[in-house]
Amino acid sequence: MTNGVMNVKKDRLRYTKNKLSSTLAILGIVFDALYFISIYSSDVGNYFYNYIIGASVVYNLLFLLCVFLSSEGVKSYKLGYAIALIVVGAMQVGRIFYIPLKAHSSMVSVGVEMVPAMDGKQFAYVIVCLVLSAVACIVSGVIGIYKTRVLEGYNKQLAGAEA
Amino acid sequence: MASLSLHNLNKIYDNNVQAVFDFNLDVKDGELIVLVGPSGCGKSTTLRMVAGLEDITSGTLIIDGKDVTQMPAKDRDIAMVFQNYALYAHMTVYENMAFSLTLRKEDPNVIHEKVLAAAEILGLTDQLNKKPRQLSGGQRQRVAMGRAIVRKPKVFLFDEPLSNLDAKLRGATRREILLLHKRLGATMLYVTHDQIEALTLADRIVCMSMGYVQQVGTPLELYDNPANIFVASFIGLPPMNMFDARVEDERLVCDGFDYPLSESERALLRDYVGKTVTLGVRPENIVPDNNGYLKASVTLNENLGQNTLVHGTVGGHKMTAKVREWCNYKKGDEVAFCLNRVHFFDKETTNAIR
């Protein structure tokens, strides 16, 4: 890529929004929603019926709010929001080890049979959703940081040239 | 850029109202044509037919040698600037200007360069990250023009683009459009009801009334040699004074004064001796003269700074004179004038007698 084309690409950042990061963050919300819709789908008794539901609902609301605000923030090349997306993305990975893994490894009695609270199929589905949500958020944050740094550098270069 | 030909264009709406009758015009490459006329005269309808926003009932529209009469608007390669700007409120200036090119899936780097070039021409470089609501009316209209420029269309169409602006901004934006035309050398079709815009902008003016073309010509031609009473009255501010006058051998007998005919005028009116014609005279051609034959009773004296509008009555007619000095006539004063340059119109056909 020639210097001229590279500079045009950098210059474009001054006038265009970081739609890629923003879209990825929204995608993170979509996969999280798919996860959350399916997580309590169960016909194996009252395994999930405790404080965990309330806590996970509250966390999920915070996640939605945080990622939505960050998607708007990264659109305008704000570094803090890009970092927040990486943190929230990492926490999505952490969520795998809380409800899904515990439910999958716990056995509950249905009649005379002992079955896992979350069967393998549902487990695989929610894991995929969480992983995709995490990847979308982290990639969004990484791209956000990269583009913000490029833009800051270019702006400094312009300011230097003007001075 | 391209030439444009309109042959026998007619527009009849579904309710059988005919808005445009046999419109004929050939626009040369790089020419700025202004369609001017009062509201409802068919000028916007004509423009919309060229744009493809109205179906052409009959006739032929040719852009750059290609018949586009039945072609959809999107394929005609024209750009239109509207009175109400039609900007996307949620997009920045940059995004508004880039939008049409983005839809065409052009290379973003090329789009960027085109937008920056257009912004430079229009003085919008510092406004590119702003939303339309943060701009003044004039700036918004410039964005609308920028959106047209980036596409490099064959023909630019302007539909009363300055009507939403205040008087001062209108003047400034009018000059910008003129400079833009000179810089781009673009073929432009411009609709307005404002004759000042028409006179200052146009290479040629098309004056319309009731769906008919009344006259096509340069601003000076329309001003100095109007084809009929309508054009004479419409072009020029204040409008031309009109007096009914009976033609006699060596003079015109008007209500309140006699106008002495020169040799050439007598020859011109040879066939009208004994008949009544309409005598037209522009306000600036009515000059105060102590020995003048037109004696008017002043009704109002308007000082405009560099000149004065003297309104009065002569015989049963109202008249306005534009005097190139500061006057202080009082209501009821008798002032004598003579007429410098007059126009004659056939009373029946309303056409100019030439």
Mean pLDDT of chain A: 90
Molecular shape of chain B: elongated
Poorly predicted spans of chain A: none
Report the end-to-end length of chain B measured between terminal Cα atoms: 37 Å
The number of domains of chain B:
2
Helical percentage of chain A: over 70%
- The domain count of chain A comes to 1
Radius of gyration of chain A: 21 Å
CATH topology name of the largest domain in chain B: Rossmann fold
Kindly state the number of beta strands of chain A: 2
Order of helices and strands of chain A: HHHHHEEH
How many angstroms separate the termini of chain A?
A: 28 Å
> What would you call the structural class of chain A?
mainly alpha
Task: Describe the protein in words.
The complex is a heterodimer of chains A (163) and B (354). Chain A has one domain (17-162). In chain A, a hairpin with a 2-residue loop joins strand 1 and strand 2. Chain A has a two-stranded antiparallel sheet. Chain A has helices at residues 3-13, 19-39, 51-75, 79-96, 99-105, 120-162; strands spanning 107-110, 113-116. Chain A is mostly helical. Chain A is 77% helix and 5% strand. By secondary structure, chain B is α+β, with helices and mostly antiparallel strands. Chain B has 2 domains: 4-234, P-loop containing nucleotide triphosphate hydrolases (Rossmann fold, 3-Layer(aba) Sandwich), CATH 3.40.50.300; 241-346, Nucleic acid-binding proteins (OB fold (Dihydrolipoamide Acetyltransferase, E2P), Beta Barrel), CATH 2.40.50.140. Helix content of chain B is 26%, strand content 33%. Chain B has helices spanning 43-51, 93-103, 108-122, 137-150, 167-184, 195-201, 219-224, 229-234, 263-268; strands at residues 4-12, 18-27, 32-36, 58-63, 66-67, 78-81, 155-159, 187-192, 204-209, 212-217, 241-247, 251-254, 257-260, 276-281, 286-288, 294-303, 308-314, 317-323, 334-339, 342-346. In chain B, strands 6-7-8-3-9-10 form a 6-stranded mixed sheet, sandwiched between helices. Chain B has a 5-stranded antiparallel sheet with strand order 13-12-11-14-20. A 5-stranded antiparallel sheet of chain B has the order 15-19-16-17-18, with no helix packed on it. In chain B, helix 2 packs across helix 3, helix 3 packs across helix 4 (137-150) and helix 4 (137-150) packs parallel to helix 5. Chain B is elongated. The mean pLDDT of chain B is 93. Chain A binds chain B through residues 5, 8-9, 11-12, 14-16, and chain B through 92, 94-95, 108-109, 112-113, 115-116, 128-129.
